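ok, trying the design again with the full structure, not the truncated one.
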């Protein structure tokens, strides 16, 4: 096979990605079908059957089923719909008036999803119906969905999602071998154990300090802007599956992951923390053993790493296509109405994220790493834009590693350690988001006033939740249940903010990746100072 020719691209990658993002957004907005307001009248009823409670919604004319949901006990029902549970009281059944009904259809290769929004006796509720195809939907929905799916808009959305998913698969394909080979090569290159220990300490210190700074900014802005005061949250609507672990359990789980019982299973399962700790140990023991054996193995990993970097570079060259596809999907599937309701909340999260990313992290970069923030952000831009469009730090990791090493000139020893660990446990954007979202919910919950002590509890639990959150889309939302629980807020209040989570997830993921990247420069600079003169990094 001939060597691929390294032709100079006319347009730098970050511009290509930026243009792809804009084009994708424009197409997505153009084909956004908006919400369908249902003109058919729907009736709803609650009834008790033994311990369980049944919510039934039917077409008033034909009696076709629109939606049913069964709750195994009164307390489960009260958790999901507290206001309706109050209204039902001890009675056996109750009719509910359904108003403001609208549905949004989202199509993908795996089927159709209906986001079904309506009010029961004035209490807003959101439910989701999933089906492998239009034909498998309840009869009521079939004609409505068929009309919807016949348009060019749904074809474009489905296609965009599929292309985006292929790009994600490529990124995921290179991630685990890249982390493993890169980290082993990095640790063997460090040589002494002492150097590794110092780098470890500095990295964790940087993660903690920047996450706490992000949380503080979130706390200040949410108290200043007060987006939740006066906001009306739905009393109904299902919360997402809560992460039912205590804080200590989360920390313990993360520590457990550091010791994989079967490293091969962890590699196969893509468990980042386990892979990281095993690769570090492997690198260290290669150095301990040294001699011919150590050298041979170190060289094998070095060669494998070089090949993985080349493969990653190829995947990255496809980023503009993947990014455009994701932007089409993200913008064409978001209900626009909800943005108005939650504008202040979104603005608060956004402003806090921007302040952290544009003021705090660049100052740290300038002072501690002596780097020009503008140049650094330009080097990192392909990774940051990909983080934005995929909303996943893990998926972006190969790009981040490539940008930090090839474009920003950071050594592999630093980046191979700081970045994979950062993608897993350092999430400034997520920590900040948790704080703003939970305080927003607290402000919007009548009679709920968070004292300073409780706000500190929110801050600390948010930090742990961000450490526990995986670098995948919506992970922060799942972990939020822990923060809500810590101060006794209702989980169902999450119902409404789920609707705008994707957009905020895109923003916070970029901040997560930006913080990891700045961490590389800071740790690299500190290592530089420690290096005796004349010794190579
Ligand atoms: N999507 C974020 C990330 O990958 C995590 C989150 O949901 O906050 O970094």
């Amino acid at each position: 096979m001939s060597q691929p020719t390294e032709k100079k691209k006319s347009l730098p990658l970050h511009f290509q990605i930026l243009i792809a993002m804009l084009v994708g957004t424009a197409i997505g907005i153009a084909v956004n079908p908006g919400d369908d307001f249902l003109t058919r009248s729907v009736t709803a009823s609650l009834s008790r059957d033994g311990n369980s409670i049944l919510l039934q919604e039917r077409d008033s004319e034909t009696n076709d089923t629109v939606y049913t949901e069964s709750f195994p006990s009164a307390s489960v029902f009260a958790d999901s719909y507290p206001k309706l549970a109050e209204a039902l009281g001890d009675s056996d059944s109750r009719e509910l008036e359904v108003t403001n009904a609208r549905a949004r259809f989202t199509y993908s290769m795996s089927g159709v999803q209906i986001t079904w929004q309506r009010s029961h006796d004035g209490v807003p509720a959101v439910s989701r119906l999933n089906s492998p195809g239009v034909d498998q939907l309840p009869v009521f929905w079939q004609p409505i969905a068929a009309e919807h799916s016949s348009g060019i808009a749904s074809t474009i959305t489905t296609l965009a999602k599929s292309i985006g998913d292929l790009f994600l698969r490529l990124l995921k394909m290179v991630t685990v071998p890249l982390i493993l080979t890169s980290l082993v090569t990095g640790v063997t290159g460090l040589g002494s154990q002492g150097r590794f220990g110092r780098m470890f300490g500095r990295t964790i210190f940087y993660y903690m300090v920047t996450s706490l700074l992000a949380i503080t900014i979130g706390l200040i802005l949410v108290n200043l802007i007060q987006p939740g005061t006066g906001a009306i949250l739905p009393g109904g609507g299902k919360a997402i599956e809560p992460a039912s672990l205590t804080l200590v359990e989360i920390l313990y789980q993360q520590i457990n992951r550091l010791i994989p019982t079967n490293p091969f299973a962890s590699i196969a399962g893509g468990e980042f923390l386990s892979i990281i700790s095993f690769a570090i140990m492997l690198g260290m023991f290669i150095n301990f053993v040294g001699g011919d054996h150590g050298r041979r193995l170190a060289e094998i990993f070095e060669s494998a790493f070089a090949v993985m970097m080349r493969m990653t570079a190829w995947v990255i060259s496809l980023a503009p296509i993947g990014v455009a596809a994701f932007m089409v999907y993200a913008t064409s599937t978001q209900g626009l109405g909800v943005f108005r309701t939650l504008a202040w909340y979104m603005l608060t999260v956004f402003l806090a994220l921007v302040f952290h990313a544009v003021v705090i992290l660049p100052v740290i970069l300038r002072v501690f790493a002596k780097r020009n923030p503008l140049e650094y952000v330009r080097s990192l831009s392909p990774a940051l834009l990909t983080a934005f469009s995929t909303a996943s730090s893990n998926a972006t990791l190969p790009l981040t590693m490539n940008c930090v090493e090839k474009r920003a000139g950071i050594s592999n020893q630093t980046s191979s350690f700081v970045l994979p660990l950062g993608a897993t446990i350092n999430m400034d954007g997520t920590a900040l988001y948790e704080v703003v979202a939970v305080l927003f919910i607290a402000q919007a919950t009548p009679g709920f006033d968070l004292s300073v002590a409780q706000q500190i509890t929110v801050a600390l639990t948010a930090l742990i939740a961000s450490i526990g959150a995986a670098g995948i889309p919506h992970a922060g939302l799942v972990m939020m249940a822990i923060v809500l629980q810590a101060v006794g807020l209702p989980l169902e209040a999450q119902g409404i903010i789920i609707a705008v989570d994707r957009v905020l997830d895109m923003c916070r993921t970029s901040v997560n990746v930006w913080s990891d990247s700045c961490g590389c420069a800071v740790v690299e600079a500190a290592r530089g100072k420690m290096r005796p003169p004349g010794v190579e990094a």
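Keeping the full-length input from now on. The chain has a mean pLDDT of 83.
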